[in-house]
């Protein structure tokens, strides 16, 4: 089962693209280290305080995929410098 989650997020304290990318790099690298997922910034690359993160997980069952993606979302929410807004799930 392939699961894809798209999260639109806000980084309120970022005053430049450099600051935004520093926050995103830390989040993305921790997600990749801790979970068996692929993660990338997929939209709003040139906007300081807004981003869209895509996370993909592939497992043998929908329950395992959903659990992995939910754990990723919990980790994203644990970072105080980023706020998750709109989140969409897709299943393949």
TrEMBL record:
Protein name: DUF503 family protein
Tree of life domain: Bacteria
InterPro entries, alphabetized: DUF503, TT1725-like_sf
Coiled coil: none
Pfam families the UniProt entry points to: DUF503
PANTHER family: DUF503 DOMAIN-CONTAINING PROTEIN, HYPOTHETICAL CYTOSOLIC PROTEIN
Native source species: Bacillus mesophilus
